Amino acid sequence: MKELDRHKAFELASPFPYVLAVTLDARDRPNIIGLSWWMFTSWDPLMIAISVGHQRYSHECLEHHREFVLCFPSEGQAKDAWLCGTKSGRKVDKFLETGFKPIHSKIVQPPIIEGVTAAFECKVVNHLETGDHTIYIAEVVATHGDHERAMHLYSIHYTKLVSIDCKGNINFDLKY
Ligand SMILES: Cc1cc2nc3c(=O)[nH]c(=O)nc-3n(C[C@H](O)[C@H](O)[C@H](O)COP(=O)(O)O)c2cc1C
Fold it and tell me: What is the topology classification, in CATH, of domain 33-165?
């Protein structure tokens, strides 16, 4: 063990499960952000926290409308999922740019992305300022999943995606 700079340590600590949070902007248009800083925080009630940078358009969206859907993009969605982590909704409409299809959520207003492995509808109940990010803490109000699309995405630092399923199968060679 030796001292490493934060980039090398992040790479070593990888992979992190890579998810997409769908929010609504002030005009009620859905936006999507790629996130690896998220966690489940409680089982009963089921709760999730996401950490969103102050500069992100998604931060603005969550300040406007305190709901999001946390989607686990499936293996075949790597290219579009990557775009959501590298372009801002301030400049592009990510549903138009990616071809992701929005489908109605059961309870919250932001839509689910069609074809994902699992999706959690969330209502924000609290938030915490932490350095240059805000942690939004949310209660899960509905859960969805698709056994046919079990392979989903993990990020290696901020440079690469791989896919892994719940049985431990791994694909390092994604085309995106
Ligand atoms: C692998 C990966 C993980 C990321 N994780 C986070 C994260 O946890 N929190 C965050 O605020 N941004 C994260 N980002 C950066 C945002 O996804 C990116 O800045 C995005 O363009 C913001 O979109 P928006 O401006 O439409 O909200 C990540 C990007 C990548 C590629």
Answer: Pnp Oxidase; Chain A (2.30.110)
Residue identifier of the C-alpha nearest atom 23 of ligand 1: 88
Proportion of the chain above pLDDT 90, given as a percent: 96
Print the SS3 string covering the chain.
CCCCCHHHHHHHHCCEECEEEEEECCCCCEEEEEECCEEEEECCCCEEEEEEECCCHHHHHHHHCCEEEEEECEHHHHHHHHHHCCCCCCCCCHHHHHCCCEECCCCCCCCEECCCCEEEEEEEEEEEEECCEEEEEEEEEEEEECHHHCCEEEEECCCEEEEECCCCCEECCCCC
Cα 51 to ligand 1 centre (Å)? 10
Ligand 1 centroid vs 133 CA: distance in angstroms? 11
- pLDDT tens for 101-135 read 999 999 999 999 999 999 999 999 999 999 999 99
- pTM value is 0.97
